Amino acid sequence: MSIDRLPHIAVPQTRREFLARSGAGFGATALSGLMADAAVASEVRPAGLHHVPRAKSVIFLFMEGGPSHMDTFDPKPELSRLAGQPLPESFGKVALAMGEAHAPLMASQRKWKQHGEAGTWVSDWLPHTATCVDDIAVLRSCHTDGVNHSAGVCQMNTCSPLGGRPSLGSWVSYGLGTENKDLPAFVVMQDGGSSVVNGPRNWSAGFMPAVHQGVRLKEVGEPVPNLSTPESVGAARQSGKLDLLGKLNREFAAAHPEQTELDARIASYELAFRMQAEAPGAVDLSQETAETQALYGMDDKETASFGRLCLLSRRLAERGVRFIQLYHGPGSKWDAHSGIEANHSKLCKAMDKPVAGLLKDLKRRGLLEDTLVVWGGEFGRTPMSEQGNGRDHNPTGFTMWMAGGGVKGGQTLGATDELGLRAVEDRLHVHDLHASILHLLGLDRLDLTYPYKGRPERPTINEGKFFEKLVG
């Protein structure tokens, strides 16, 4: 009789089972030592603060596709003077690398005006945001490595142009957890019917436990699908089903400790059960006054969609959600290789009032003090024209801005050159941007570590630093 037919002998099917059952269990001792780091890291608990935080939560407004900085926040009179001419020879090396050496320069068609007490320059595309500049720090010297959308969006989310690393929101979830156990720590929403480049990879937990990945809320209808218990089931029956399912899952998880996805699934079931009480109120915009909804532009079909998401963001932030990311123009709609006037005019109109409404609403409720709002895309646009009336990708210099969360408003920091091609003063790489966001939340980018494959991994890949000028 072959050994696999003996009923009293369990034949190991994997090396893990072999170690656990061999040598009177001493193999399991060795195995547990090898897995100790992974087991500790899989626990769902915050890593903890490293210093006194200025912000408790982040709302990241991501303009997917790359808005033009020299048409929004970074006016370039020299670009207008040299319009139609080729790029000066002094820019040749950069332009050649970007494949735009012979394209003529294209002037901005915008009208510019200084706003606020600090006289921050904003174009006529953003009249509502212009009323908030005394709360905003404009960062004109950002740069990145990704030259295409996939790499650029990936790096702005994960600090690397290559996929596989945890997103910034996942690091925040891992570092701080949530202030509200009945809601996720990290929430993602997209405006419009298209999907953002890279999809869920942008809010993935990478090599960290899957429980730290972002939770995607729907933009139309029920934000959290299938959350409500059907009347035919009832709360008691639903609770019993979840208890049984949890018991089965925990037994399986104990036998397969390497599968963090199952831990995340168990946690998500438990969270979903708690959310049945908390989430409906959090996403119920009918509780807001007509005045508040109008502040976000929800009374206008051109601004209603993004206005709804911005208002949802405020409601989530005030309920303890740590990291909220909104994608405007998913599917690279800000990517204006041609017809930038029509493209950006439409997108700015749809985004401007909701964003300004968010800032004003946070401020009047006393929430802006500890809510950090970040605005920007994966890169900017070139001063050279493309197809006669558009602009190409520009990773070497572009604008983002931050407000609230301890940031000193009314500032314009950093600079690009006279044509807006390259960041030249107080240059801020994506690593620096992430390091600064984490610092404002009370997390040090070097002290926040996750053990992976025998070495400590850090959110900014051991690069970047806090930009101290943000706080004055």
Q: What is the CATH C-level name of the largest domain? A: Alpha Beta
- What is the share of helical residues? 25-40%
CATH A-level architecture of the largest domain: 3-Layer(aba) Sandwich
> Sheet bearing the most strands, described?
9 strands, mixed
Low-confidence stretches: 1-44
Query: How confident is the prediction overall: mean pLDDT?
Result: 86
Q: What's the CATH topology label of the largest domain?
A: Alkaline Phosphatase, subunit A
- Please report the distance between the alpha carbons of the first and last residues: 81 Å
* Broad shape: globular
* Total strand segments: 17
SSE-based structural type: alpha/beta
| Count of domain modules | 2
Gyration radius from CA atoms, angstroms: 25 Å
Can you tell me about this structure?
- By secondary structure, the chain is of the alpha/beta class.
- The protein folds into two domains: 55-219 and 287-471, 3-Layer(aba) Sandwich (Alkaline Phosphatase, subunit A); 224-282.
- 33% of the residues lie in helices and 16% in strands.
- The chain has 14 helices and 17 strands.
- Strands 1, 4, 5, 6, 7, 8, 11, 12 and 15 form a nine-stranded mixed beta sheet that branches.
- The longest helix is centred in the last third of the chain and has 25 residues, at 340-364.
- The relative contact order is 0.20.
- It comes from Alienimonas chondri.
- This is DUF1501 domain-containing protein.
- InterPro entries: Alkaline_phosphatase_core_sf (IPR017850), DUF1501 (IPR010869), TAT_signal (IPR006311).
